Amino acid sequence: MRTIVLLGSTGSIGTQTLDVIRDRRDQFRVVGLGASGGNLELLAAQIVEFQPETVALARPAAANQLQGLLYAEADKRGWNAGDFRLPKLLLGPDAATELAAADVDVVLNAITGAAGLLPTLATLAKGTTLALANKESLVIGGRLVTSAARPGQIVAVDSEHSAFAQALRSGRADEVRRLVLTASGGPFRGRTREDLAAVTPDDAMAHPTWAMGRVITINSSTLVNKGLELLEAALLYDVALDDVVVTVHPQSIVHSMVEFHDGSTIAQASPPDMRLPIGIALTWPDRLADAARPCDWSTPATWTFEPVDNDTFPAIELARSSGKAGGTAPAVYNAANEAAVDAFCEGRIGFLAITEIISACLDEHLASGHVADDNLTVEAVLAADRWGRERAAELVEARA
Ligand SMILES: NC(=O)C1=CN([C@@H]2O[C@H](COP(=O)(O)OP(=O)(O)OC[C@H]3O[C@@H](n4cnc5c(N)ncnc54)[C@H](OP(=O)(O)O)[C@@H]3O)[C@@H](O)[C@H]2O)C=CC1
Ligand SMILES: CC(=O)[C@@H](O)[C@H](O)COP(=O)(O)O
Ligand SMILES: [Mn+2]
Fold first, then answer.
1. In what order do the strands lie in the sheet containing 88-91?
2. I need a surface site. Which of 20, 88, 384, 395 has the fewest CB within 10 A?
3. Per-residue pLDDT tens digits for 134-173
4. Closest residue to atom 8 of ligand 2, CA basis
5. Which of 13, 16, 91, 223 to mutate to test the pocket of ligand 1 (most atoms within 8 A of CB)?
6. Which of residues 93, 124, 156 is at a domain's end?
7. Structure ipTM over 0.90, yes or no
8. Would residue 201 count as lying in a domain?
């Protein structure tokens, strides 16, 4: 029986994680759930169904409403007062970090954005296995995060990085030549910059192969997601940034590949379904039987690969240069992006402005002397995160 804390339980990864656990109550027990408070009905239903001991809620003002919803949910099921015990509530911006330090086997961090950093660090400090969906915490924390982890303590949930972990079992570390990161290309694959000037948030949300949360879906459309994933891969598997190459694979069936020094390439393939990487992350190094459907070889299928159009989508190379600068630069890349994505979704800037703002923030940050890897601290990362958001907001205003 593995005990689990799930942070971000009401999101896309969170709900799919509970789907995996729902039919396997003999293998997993949910000890804690965490969310921000944006979907209290769903959180209440999850609490009643999984009966965690502790719940972390980032917005304290939502606590009363949650309690009312819990009683209503229990009532709906015809339960008496004795059938259900209210969980302990942790409230406020540090609640998820406190919950991450619980005594459990696995913390699955599925919070979105930089808010996942402190929970990631708290999990590692406690010595608990970290099933990591929240790539932003690894990217912005960089060596701070990797040096806090013992070997194997971080297990990737991200589909590409789960694919790397699976393929890397085919050879020794010194036999690896390159990591080949696949990208769907997003909804705007094949478009020109001219085409992209007028695309809307709804257009950007129409991902061709995956149903995901808002931020990661917009990030897939700009290819910022692939930029973050390039940095994530280099950090997780200790590979040089130039040894991670990206190929566009619109079908999202080959989730990524490892090229070995004899010329072999080992790929991990399965239909796009996050329940597979979530399942293997919860049971790593073992596989979770029947986590998802395999490929169907009884019907014709075509898998294609093409190079990335880096002129139209500069986000990957911007990420690579932020990774080479190291230190606080990736935190600025991510923060500027999070602020620009919000502005784009609110209709305040156009699509192309997202990567233009990231680029401008990065240039300014590097010119004003960023904190390098050797001197990196949590405070420096959080300060760079704040600065990146504020500077991006100013650049948004200047364009309005
Ligand atoms: N979705 C996917 O298929 C994939 C996602 N990922 C990564 O997984 C992470 C989650 O993505 P996804 O599930 O799509 O995102 P969603 O937006 O769907 O869900 C985000 C979750 O995080 C919670 N949350 C947001 N802010 C805070 C906060 N400050 N404190 C505590 N909880 C918070 C939300 O709570 P509430 O609902 O209450 O607001 C929600 O439960 C991201 O880092 C993403 O890049 C990686 C690979 C695939
Ligand atoms: C499911 C998953 O892991 C996402 O990160 C996915 O990879 C996004 O697709 P893109 O390849 O379009 O960024
Ligand atoms: Mn991914």
1. 88-91, 54-57, 28-35, 2-7, 106-109, 129-132, 154-156
2. 88
3. 999 999 999 999 999 999 999 999 999 999 999 999 999 9
4. 220
5. 13
6. 156
7. yes
8. no
